[in-house]
Specification:
Belongs to the AAA ATPase family. GO terms for molecular function: ATP binding; ATP hydrolysis activity. By secondary structure, the protein is an alpha/beta fold. The protein has helices at residues 23-38, 40-46, 64-74, 85-91, 96-109, 133-147, 189-202, 213-218, 225-241, 249-270; strands at residues 8-10, 53-57, 79-84, 114-119, 155-161, 177-182. Strand 4, helix 6 (133-147) and strand 5 form a beta-alpha-beta unit. Helix 1 (23-38) packs across helix 3 (64-74), helix 5 (96-109) runs parallel beside helix 6 (133-147) and helix 7 (189-202) crosses helix 9. It starts with 7 loop residues before the first strand and ends with a helix. The model has no long low-confidence stretch (mean pLDDT 91). The protein binds adenosine-5'-triphosphate. Adenosine-5'-triphosphate binds at residues 19-22, 60-66, 119, 160, 162, 195, 198-199, 225-226, 229.
């Protein structure tokens, strides 16, 4: 069996302050994940049930992984476990029951609270016909562990998906993934500006005063957080190519046109 450190990160280096915009999601994630884990004694004293599982759903690049890491980081002695659906399907072949149990046991034995993040859960727990035997075994084990959660203290499972409608409904029953957080496909204008500002600060980018993030936000309707981050990075690379150490408006304009072109390509492919 594998070394658990492959999945585990202590205090992941992502904070809520590094997330641009998305204020409502921040509040919701703090309420459904951070509060029950940071105040677990108060929860049990007052008689409130902490959540076992939370489903994050929304398109790729909207910040689901980022939020799961940030909440783990915000918790004192928090630990983050990252399980990628498609990857474990091949690695856990024949030993999924044991692996799931080992991860949950490890998580509950840590000094602080733990977040177990399962990315692309639909690859394992699809409701579609013809789901493979291995997938069924993993889902069954996951549900067994979650149903017996009283023995796993201070652990919350966050599952992420782009296709919530494809998930086996058995996962959504009470005591399982019974809370959800929706990551919108479109961001309001202020959020796009805030993401550009937050990411450029966090990455310590050298941005010229003449750069106008509001103007860029106006031209990037329907862009995700990941695409805005890529825009800044591509602009920085274009500055380096031009032998500069400052990002100027032309770098952003060039990067914007390129990404816009590849976005249109993708839309044509899928449409
Ligand atoms: P996927 O479904 O593809 O796993 P995701 O929703 O988990 O996507 P993330 O991996 O969290 O997306 O985000 C992709 C990248 O975009 C990351 O580098 C992340 O830091 C950045 N990003 C996304 N949204 C924001 C945001 N609101 N503020 C700052 N960075 C963001």
């Amino acid at each position: 069996s594998s070394d658990l450190s492959r999945y585990r990160t202590e205090n992941p280096d992502n904070s809520f302050d590094d997330i641009g915009g998305l204020e409502t999601i921040k509040e919701r994630v703090k309420e459904v994940v951070e509060l029950p884990l940071s105040k677990s004694d108060e929860f049990s004293e007052i008689g409130a049930d902490p959540p076992t599982g939370v489903l994050f759903h929304g398109p790729p690049g909207t910040g689901k992984t980022l939020f799961a890491r940030a909440v783990a980081d915000s918790l004192e002695d928090g630990t983050f476990y990252n399980i990628n659906g498609p990857e474990v399907l091949s690695r856990w072949y024949g030993e999924s029951e044991r692996e799931i149990r080992r991860i949950f046991e490890d998580a509950s034995q840590r000094d602080g609270p733990s977040i177990i993040f399962i990315d692309e859960i639909e690859s394992i727990a699809s409701s579609r016909e013809g789901s493979r035997e291995v997938n069924r075994r993993i889902v069954t084990q996951l549900l067994t562990v979650m149903d017996g959660f009283d023995e796993f203290e201070d652990v919350i499972v966050i599952a992420a998906t782009n296709r919530p409608e494809d998930i086996d409904q058995a996962l959504r029953r009470p005591g399982r993934f019974d809370r959800e957080v929706e990551f919108p496909s479109e961001l309001p204008m202020e959020d796009r500006v805030d993401i550009l500002e937050t990411v450029s600060e966090q990455e310590e980018m050298n941005v010229a005063d003449s750069v106008d993030f509001t103007g860029i936000a106006e031209e990037t309707e329907e862009w995700t957080g990941a695409e805005l981050k890529r825009l800044l990075n591509d602009a920085a690379v274009s500055g380096v190519k031009d032998s500069r150490t400052t990002i100027i408006p032309e770098d952003l304009a060039l990067a914007l046109r390129r990404i816009e072109r590849s976005r249109r390509g993708k839309q044509n492919e899928s449409g």
